[in-house]
Amino acid sequence: DQQVKQNSPSLSVQEGRISILNCDYTNSMFDYFLWYKKYPAEGPTFLISISSIKDKNEDGRFTVFLNKSAKHLSLHIVPSQPGDSAVYFCAVHSSNTGKLIFGQGTTLQVKP
Amino acid sequence: EPEVTQTPSHQVTQMGQEVILRCVPISNHLYFYWYRQILGQKVEFLVSFYNNEISEKSEIFDDQFSVERPDGSNFTLKIRSTKLEDSAMYFCASSDRPSGAFFGQGTRLTVV
Which CATH number fits domain A4-111: 1.10.1200.10, 3.40.50.10490, 2.60.40.10, 3.90.1150.10? Predict the structure, then answer.
């Protein structure tokens, strides 16, 4: 079941630079798209979401972009900070089912 | 800030034994979920619960699994006869709407 794909297992970025995390999905019926951040031995922490009727949502250093025609979602973090180092999961939600479907995750390392 | 709490943080059990994982969702939330993450793999949906009944379950959630909301505040996941492959981090999540769930810190289940 590869409905949500994060093709980059890891990303390394210098502090202060932009981090761009990508996610692709297959089903155009999803209505919400979310990003979660996860540290080892902790639960996923909700970061930011976007509705399918929008193409951009911004919250401080975090911006999520949605390209529905390409079925592509991205998270921009700028400027990146060492404390941003974690695993980032994109997730999609379908109002038909109520569940979240997660991607495999991308490990972000921000180097000081 | 309200949070989802899970107990215990780590449970070790013998194969074939029953385990109960406990969760206290955020108090005004109506939607409840269990997810799990096997080491090195992605977060997987197990079951969603709304209005005192299961609204959806995955193929992982077979007859060995059950969920209960026994007293209006707790939300439990029971595994009747644990198998080695049930070893994982189990995350409880809750939400006040059908999207954007908040996760607990997780219970690490180790089946030996």
Answer: 2.60.40.10
